[in-house]
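chain below, 709 aa
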Amino acid sequence: MNKLQVLLFALFIGFVSISSAQEKKKIKIEYAGKLTIDEENYPGAKVLTRDDTQQVHIEHSGSNMWCDKAIHYGKENFIEAYGNVILRQGDTINMTSKYIEYSGITELAFASGDVVLTDPNSTISSDTLYMDRLKQQAFYKNGGTVVKDSSGTITSKIGRYYMDIKKYQFVEDVVLVSDSTTIKSNFFDFYSDTGYAYLFGPSTITTEDSKTYCEKGFYDTENKIGYAVKKAKIDYDNRIIEGDSLYFDNNISFASATNNITVTDTINKSIIKGHYAEMFKEKDSVFITKRALAITIQENDSIYLHADKILVTGKPDNRIINANYNAKIFKSDLSGKADSIHTSQKTGITKLINIPRFSSGDKFSSARKPIMWNLENQMTGDTIHLISNSETEKIDSLLVFNNAFIISQDTISKTGYNQINGMRLVGFFNDENQLRQVDITKNAQSIFYARNDKQELIGIDKAKSGSISILFADGDIDEYTRFNQVDGDMYPESKYPEKEKFLKGFDWREEERPLSVEDLFKDDPPLELPTIKGLEDYVPQDAFFDEEMMQRIKLAGPLYKYDKTLRNQENLLLFKNEFSNSKWVKNGIKVSKKNSILSPNRKKNTYNIIGTGNSDGHILQIVDRTLGVFKFSIWLKGKGTTRIRFQEQGKDYTNYKTLDISLTNDWKQYSITTSKANDGNKLRCVISNIQKNDDFYLWGAELIELKKN
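prediction:
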């Protein structure tokens, strides 16, 4: 086919398209009380008014309209309706307003003045509303309200209703208010038949008991349940729960969290971390597992508690922490380990115990007794109680019940061990949380490496007594007193029997001692976190006034008015998505589709921009406008920094408006608005400050002239 044939074919297709559009079904006047001709005010039109019996009745392609007065342009297939206007489509859509413009060619209606559109599921109210019968969509852009009885009332600046799928898309200042819940968001998708809401961008869900924040989330407004991802956080008055993924049921004030969880107790200054958690507000309980860690924040030295599972229960003034299975505790001057550790924040008592097991082969519960370390001292027993003063944050005392055993390595020889055992141990701490005094009662036995002032070994002292009291200084034995001694003697090290160097039950476990917070996890199996799935990224709505609609409007002719802002929707930028086109001036960048990704609406591939490093790269388009108010917007995603700006073309390249941007891995639309005086120079829209290794994608460049109505 040669060029002439192609041209003729294109003209033929265009002629057929225009002809078919113009041959659409004509608007039909079903009833009018009075018909007049007013060529001076309404040239080429018929003026129709109601009578005392009924309104003017108009029909077109299955839709019916009633009004008090109508201006009918028969040739243009266009009508204006005034006064108590009703537009009804089938049995489901009903719209009332003070005024409607409607074209039989475009099948687009514009309503203004107390507009109310209802269907079986919801009601839209706005001062102005567009309804596209071809696409079955309604749209407002200057504020509106949607009411759904069971879900509440939704207000937003911009709203769009897809009638066929019962879906709303709200944008900017979105607020849903129901009897018990308030939702605020920037982007909000809502299905009126199910009450399902999808939130995107900074969003909050507020109830009487909680406040949930996320930047991507779902909420069932009927059943009051939902989940949140991306910077998700729930505030339950005195507890804040954060995680990669949060599920919540506002009926029972329950929440569960998955991956990278932090639960903050704002009253008791404690934090719990892990990778799976459940929280019941009414029961004042938090359960957490997978690298569970409880942190009691203190001014000088926080306490860390780790176990396979941690359960926190009780009111704020009486929190109880239960750390079960392979539990460990650490602070800079004290650490411990047990099968289970229980802490009461009210009483200040921390209990280290072994949980009875049904399996007789459980070596941990039978042999590896609860253990604590303070400075150079290791203490074990069947059960250990650590008593603290919750007000002063000081450790007060230590109790070891049954089979108490305290060991410290001789600081000089490093081969001998000072040892004491007995039935019960009571220890007291000084103001520096150092063990100062230890009393062991009932059947006390001891082995001490005695040294003189020069730290020379005098001998090894072994004895039995009813009880022993020991004073420590900087972790070393300073002095000791035996009561009701049964026997004992001091031996030179050379004459001390090797087999007598250890008391029965001796078990030096220094290799188990946590020396840091990281050490608490060294025995844990490798952690494998589940992949969070569920919500897709936000898909921005295509423009309501898209190219296809604007073409329909042009076919309707100059008479087709709607409100004046409709005529201001033309994008002044050419090739808004084709950034390789020469209309876009480029410098210091590489533009390609080699590594392209899907556009924000997931329909097409986007262009990739990479800074080459030759200079501050930029891409721009010059617009033949010298005067006016303009809005420039574009979607961006990637890494690095850039800026968008309005700039004068030529002369001194004045910058009218600039927005600096730190790019993210999510599509985001950026926009700036400026007023340009008539300086005789054209306007240009610039994406600039593109440096070497900046790597991003762009989509939907748009420049709109904001003309006054």
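The first strand starts at residue 28 and ends at 31. Confidence is low (pLDDT under 50) at residues 1-22.
thats it, cya
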